[in-house]
Amino acid sequence: MTVTKLRIAFILDRYNPQGRGEGYFSWLTRELVRLGHEVHVFAGLIEDETEGPFHIHRIPVVKHPKSMMITSFLIGSDLALRRERFDVIHGVGRCVNINVFNPHGGVEKAYLKQEFRSIDKASYRTYKKLRRYLSLQHYLKLWIQKKQCLGPGVRRIIAISNMVKKDVMDHYRVPEAKIAVVPNCVDLERFHPKNREVYRARKRRELGIDEHTITLLFAGNNYRLKGLEPLLRAMALLQKRSLQRKFRLLVVGRGRIGRFARIARRLGI
Description:
Number of strands: 9
Order of helices and strands: EHEEHEEHHHEHEHEHHEH
Number of domains: 2
CATH class of the largest domain: Alpha Beta
Mean pLDDT: 91
CATH architecture of the largest domain: 3-Layer(aba) Sandwich
CATH superfamily of the largest domain: Glycogen Phosphorylase B
Radius of gyration: 22 Å
Distance between the termini: 60 Å
CATH topology of the largest domain: Rossmann fold
Strand content: 15-25%
Largest sheet: 7 strands, parallel
Low-confidence stretches: none
Helix content: 40-55%
């Protein structure tokens, strides 16, 4: 089968081949090149200068304040794309002149709803809302995402899950036929069950966890939104109800751990 060679541009806020979502796009660009397409990656922050079989372009951005970072990236990406012609412009970062949109971080309005709901203390929730709604970057983000979902040039939206698809439809009234659900791929060699035998015993020794301890893993950023507190409370219940068993929770991610460490101490875990 003959494949038509396309010139494809990816627009990312940050390019990091070892990152989470960014790592997926590194794989995707390499696969597209392998299939014979010409691929260009445009990014404001580049954490790995090593060029693969594709072209990397740095978009100059003003890093502070955040509203200027968003605006400078928006203008810079637009100017960079106007200099060349592409068959597909795949937007992931905060850009609007695209024909394929991938809301890899989800829908901003849906995220905010869950973010505020995750705050128990009313005064802190009010403070967070005021801080958010008085911020210029908040309105910039919403304006950009509305353009990305409803812009006349956007022919396709790629959601990484059915939840993101539903959020796009609910908040922007995008027709279902315009959205495709394409989950991130998994490297089946790197994440193969056989690695359990390769790493399990060694990692347990490194962490001081014996063979008889039931170990749970929490992996994620934004501990409050992802539900670390109810998990800690569940651990306390497990400890009380299963006195003959030992449990251990490993927390991996980025965030402010102090509050959750205090909760753990209060719960006696």
